[in-house]
Design brief:
The protein has about 500 residues and is an alpha/beta fold. It has an eight-stranded parallel barrel. A five-stranded antiparallel beta sheet has the order 17-18-19-20-21. Strands 3-4 form a two-stranded antiparallel ribbon. It is about 35% helix and about 20% strand. It starts with 5 loop residues before the first strand and ends with a strand.
Length: about 500
């Protein structure tokens, strides 16, 4: 992937239209701003129970957005990343519908996981309680198939998302067909969505077990054969993330968003500095995404080993977000909304900072200076606020940060001074040669953070004073030693 900032977006929620509209936006008002674009699910349909993460047909572009040809055309403007939804398929998919009608005589019967396929000899209460869950309850849904059979289906996320056996021949063929379709459309990278849950084994947590790593390595090999890079999406204990990063192309730095919030809200750079000294360099950095702000990534593990923040610091951070967002995030998080995620706070990043634009721009500057490839979520790009109307209509907590923009809203937002400053930061991150060199992170005191990049005679430095708060960027401009400065305060 290019060492440039990427856009993360839903096609329709940014443009109000389709893939061609996104191409016009990236060639017009956002020309030369992004090196790549991670397109969140654009498959048929985009408006299922989980905002496209429950595709009926993973190999079909939702016709309301366009076609594979449109996607291939967009790929001539920016490098494309797409989601390979590894763990499950929709209950409305042709494969599951065939299984529902024909039961064990269906060629797809082995593709879908039922209770007895994972536990053919039964199981114990202890084993069931050992299964790692992203949401409350056990991962099973009682279902009556179309042929009248009663089954317990394995459903990690929602009852409509049926987990597949990724090692079954039909499961393998299913994933291979998606990879091949991506390859034909010029997709340069995939995100393995929910891959941590893909392997189920009795007596284990069924989450990131050794067999999961074997599967990731195998699927990555198949992707590499098609010239596709792989990003693994896993929310987990930070030491596990470091271990995962050694085995894959790219991982998300999900610890960065809460650590940056902690640094800015508590004027304390030390936990962030410690993380930056050990974190993987092959990271995709984010502050906000289509999901919430994760806290599990900075917390202790199940055995009680300490995290990057103390439990009291995490609690203070969560409560600070609720307070600074005027209680809006509380209405969208945990038991207050559907699609429960036990480890995330649902809120825009700007609202998590109390709509303080200076803090927000400092946060983005830190993100862009941290080693890795930065992704900017479309709502964050436009300085979006919590969409309480959409939350009220849908009842889905994460919709608070999934606003549907019109083109008029986009154009208006791009004129805001804060957004213009953000675009300048993105262009600087994309163009300065020092970002291809070496990075040094220093924190002379609790409230100071300095990140410096050097390559030959090129250099660029970010200095943050959290006590003010303010940030100062200075960088070389040519071989003669001249420099330029930028202030954020």
């Amino acid at each position: 992937m290019k060492n440039q900032v990427q856009l993360m977006t839903y096609v329709d929620r940014l443009t109000g239209g389709g893939i061609e509209d996104l191409k016009h936006l990236l060639e017009g008002p956002l020309a030369a701003v992004f090196g790549g674009a991670h397109l969140l699910p654009f498959f048929h349909p985009i408006d299922g129970v989980d905002a496209g993460f429950d595709p009926i047909d993973h190999t079909q572009v939702d016709p309301r957005l366009g076609s594979w040809g449109d996607l291939q055309s967009l790929g001539s403007t920016v490098e494309l990343m797409a989601d390979l939804i590894v763990n499950h398929a929709s209950s409305l998919s042709p494969q599951f519908q065939d299984f529902s009608r024909q039961g064990l005589t269906s060629p797809y019967s082995g593709m879908f996981l039922t209770f007895d396929r994972v536990f053919p000899k039964g199981t114990t209460e202890a084993d069931l309680l050992r299964i790692y869950r992203p949401r409350p309850g056990l991962p099973f849904t009682y279902s009556i198939l179309a042929n009248g059979e009663k089954r317990l289906l394995w459903t990690t996320f929602t009852p409509q998302q049926i987990d597949i056996d990724v090692n079954h021949p039909q499961g393998t063929a299913y994933l291979n067909a998606i990879l091949e379709r991506f390859h034909q459309a010029g997709v340069r990278a995939i995100r393995m969505d929910a891959v941590g849950y893909a392997i189920k084994k009795p007596g284990t947590s069924c989450f990131m077990i050794p067999e999961t790593f074997e599967f990731i390595e195998d699927l990555t090999t198949r992707a590499h054969q098609l010239g596709i890079e792989v990003l693994v999406e896993v929310h987990s204990y930070y030491k596990q993330q470091v271990d995962i990063a050694r085995r894959v192309d790219w991982v998300y730095d999900f610890a960065l968003p809460p650590l940056v919030l902690h640094a800015l809200l508590k004027a304390d750079a030390k936990p962030l500095e410690r993380w930056l000294s050990i974190r993987p360099r092959n990271a995709i950095t984010v502050l906000d995404t289509h999901d919430g702000i994760g806290v599990i990534d900075v917390g202790a593990d199940a055995a009680g080993d300490p995290g990057l923040l103390e439990p009291s610091e995490i609690n203070d951070l969560v409560e600070s977000i609720h307070r600074l967002s005027n209680g809006q995030s509380r209405k969208a998080t945990g038991e207050a909304a559907n699609n429960l995620d036990l480890y995330q706070v649902n809120c825009t990043y700007l609202d998590a900072l109390g709509n303080n634009e200076t803090l927000y721009l400092i946060a983005r500057a830190i993100q862009f200076f941290v080693p890795g490839i930065p992704q900017v979520y479309y709502v964050g790009l436009l300085g979006g606020r919590n969409d309480m109307d959409l939350l009220e209509r849908s009842g889905v907590g994460r919709d608070i940060n999934r606003h549907y923009y019109t083109i008029a809203e986009v154009v208006s937002s791009l004129q805001r001074p804060m957004v213009q400053c953000l675009l300048s930061l993105i262009r600087l991150r994309n163009s300065h040669p020092a970002f291809n060199g070496t990075c040094i992170v220093e924190s002379a005191s609790q409230n100071l953070l300095t990140i410096t990049w050097k390559l030959d005679s090129h250099w660029i430095a970010l200095r943050v004073d959290l006590s003010v708060p303010s940030a100062f960027i200075e960088h070389s401009t040519d071989q003669s030693g001249h420099s330029a400065k930028m202030h954020i305060e």
